[in-house]
Amino acid sequence: MATTLVVAEPKDRLAQYVCGLVPDVICCTGRELLANCGFALLQDGTSVEGSLTLAGQPLPLAQLSGVLFRPVRRWRPPSGLGARHRAFVRHETQAAWCAVLNALTCPVFNRMPPAWWLDDTLYRAHLAQVFAQQLGLPFSPAGDGRGARGLHSGVPSPETVVSVYAVGKHLVAIDPTLRALQSHLAAHAAELAQWQHATGIGFARIDFAHRRGYAVERVEPLPAMGRAPEALLDGVSRRVAEALA
Amino acid sequence: MILVIGNPADPVIERVTAALARVGASFARIDERAARTYEIERSVDGSSVQWQIRGGDCVGQRAVGAIFVRHEPDAPDRATLEALRKLRRQLDLVLLSTVCTVINRPACATANYSKPYQLRQMAAAGFLVPRTLVTNLPSAALRFIRNLGGSVIFKGVSNLKTVPQVVQLQHLDQLSWLEHCPTQFQEFIAGEDFRVTVVDAASVVTRIIGGEPDLSLSAEGSLSTEVLQQCVRFTQQQGLVMSGIDLRRTSAGRAYAFELNPYPLFTYYEAEEGPRITERIVEYLVKHQCAPSDVCV
Fold first, then answer.
1. Pick from B142, B93, B86, B100: which is nearest to B3 by CA?
2. Domain A123-221: which topology?
3. Mutation for A interface: B154, B181, B183, most A CBs within 10 A
4. Residues in CB range of B53: below 8 A, 6 or more apart
5. Beta carbons of B181 and A145 less than 8 Å apart
6. pLDDT exceeds cutoff 70 at A114
7. N or C end of chain B, less CB within 10 A?
8. For chain B, which domains are there?
9. A100 touches chain B (CB under 8 A)
10. Quick one: closest CA in B to A80, which residue?
11. What are the structural domain ranges in chain A?
């Protein structure tokens, strides 16, 4: 039977909604996945096979219908290992899970790439830059005119930030004034799909700085939805559940 | 003007700057050992961004056309390491968005953090790759070793340096350690080792004997044109200008790929008196300088 794996904290509202919508689901936290889940990933260049063992139950990778991966805290191995071994085990374990999540043939929201696992501070800026390039939109990184961290920057200018959620090919927003923006994105569905395929990010909140037009400001692959309006949460979780189940 | 970022005592940085001086190219350095010395200022004018770097050789006035970077990974003490990390974050932001030619942009150079992740990308690009198992389950490792008749090596999963070892009988008793740390097991491929260093559309092949580069004999012709083209294509697909790719050629002439290093210590793979790789890099930097620039040093 096909199973959806949800990796999130118990208080994650989006994960709660998704778990309520998919028929057969296994939930665990990011910490539980990295610390307690047995796994084997076998790849030979043409095929991928393997299994996960969660709470003693083996689950062949081929049986996974989808994965929602929304870890909150970064995992650290037990302190008893000593600082050096602890750092090594953490690095190796994360590199292994990076490979596993990226090798799965089922939909995964999201296949976090090495830069994310490495805590690369520029990962999100790079993601947004590539998104803007691919969709032919101006790029205005968070910080332009509003004080980039650690850098001297230009004069602040008034602008608003609006957000659209991309879930696979679907675009979700509750603000009706964003129709023009949604239409632009919908007209570039092929480019959006290419960007999602290249980056592994099938689900993201895309923030746009709105002055005279829209400029991509930030792409958030792990959007916090704790305070999201009910209608937005409902819309996003339905699309996520449809894609993963 | 070419900007060289890194530790001037790093053999790669040393050789690149010496070659730039030899061809009469003007260049400035950012010495990451003196990270506290530098200030980076970013100004925004409408939609255009300008970066000015000051400190050391840099006075924030000269337009940069191309950048060579090989970050210094370490520092002698915690405070210096913090300063180095801060400078590196700022520089990486410049390298992310600048219009200048960069060898190599750090944002494109993270795939080798996870070897099996990168190996999958290499397979998708058409390279032959060895059968690989990543696991923290002793039973899965044992099954893999048995299925391959014991002809298996094991090594780390990440980019941290580990020495690949052939699985021996005594290692089977240690498989329970996997529960504490996953490991990569790989089909042992017998053959000759090669390092292919790609610079733009060209490649330099170096034969490796007993883990050491053999610079006495030319290795050109040892690998097929198709494989070398794959190396160039894959490097470009990754958004890189240069790379070091490890390959092993079997007696049947099949070349298996193992990994791509985006910041190779290429001086190790060229003769000091005829530094072919360095020369190609310098030629590329000089030829691909952009103008107008958004970085001034």
1. B100
2. D-amino Acid Aminotransferase; Chain A, domain 1 (3.30.470)
3. B181
4. B3, B30, B38, B39, B40, B41, B60, B94, B295, B296, B297
5. no
6. yes
7. N
8. 2-109+284-296 (3.40.50), 131-187 (3.30.1490.20)
9. yes
10. B180
11. 3-110, 123-221
